[in-house]
Amino acid sequence: MINKKTTKKFKLQYKSIEELKKLNLQSIGLRPSGEENIYSYESKKYNFLNYKITPKIFSFIIFETNNCIIRLKRIEISEISNPLKLINLVIEVKIYKLEHQLHAERYISIETIEKKIFLKLLPNEIISKLLENALEIIANRFDKKFINKIINPLK
Q1: Are 79 and 51 in contact (CB under 8 A)?
Q2: pTM of the model
Q3: Which of 30, 48, 89, 127 is placed for a possible disulfide with 39 were both Cys, Cβ 3.0 to 4.6 Å?
Q4: Which of these ranges, 42-51, 57-66, 124-133, has the smallest mean pLDDT?
Q5: DSSP helix/strand/coil, 5
Q6: Which alpha helices (H) appear in 27-111, and where do they start and end?
């Protein structure tokens, strides 16, 4: 398996988890999925590795006393459903209070599950580069959405 990962820290404008809980999740595009603590987000169409895709993202969101956890539950991309089965994507955000402000730590990893189908034909160096490119695109899009929807929702 080939694995690539990235982390990033953010400062949020919120002072407490209680204040963050008041954020209307539907106003930022998160809809209850029918499963407990699972919310869906439908992205706008964009280009990804020569495909035009429209991901539907399901996230587990739990508010605890001193923190909030946001974790990718699953992702549905009908345009690339078969290649998607060849990778494991992990996205997790931990929001916590530090001093008088909330902070967030974002972790994203992408890895091949196993080398089958077309991956068997590619050298590890090319697979590694593809994963790096995919990780960069995913991290940049996630960070942009996170900043616009969670960090600066009122701007």
Answers
A1: yes
A2: 0.86
A3: 30
A4: 42-51
A5: strand
A6: 81-84
At a CB cut-off of 8 Å and minimum separation 6, what does 79 contact?
51, 52, 53, 54
- How many C-beta atoms surround the C-beta of residue 121 within 10 A? 8
Q: Which of 3, 22, 27 is nearest to 109 (CA)?
A: 3
Place of tokens 């009908």: 78
Cβ-based neighbours of 121, under 8 Å, separated by 6 or more: none
* Residue linked to tokens 């916590």: 96
Please state, in angstroms and rounded to a whole number, the distance separating the CA atoms of residues 73 and 144.
20
Lowest mean per-residue pLDDT among 22-31, 64-73, 74-83, 93-102: 74-83
Q: Taking the CA of residue 120 as centre, how many other CA atoms within 13 Å lie in the half-sphere pointing to its CB?
A: 2
Helix, coil or strand: residue 63: strand
- Cβ atoms 37, 64 nearer than 8 A: no
What residue type is assigned to position 22 of the chain? Answer: K
Mean pLDDT of 63-76: 93
Q: Is 4 in contact with 126 (CB distance < 8 Å)?
A: no
In the block, tokens 């593809």 appear at 130
Average pLDDT over residues 45-49: 75
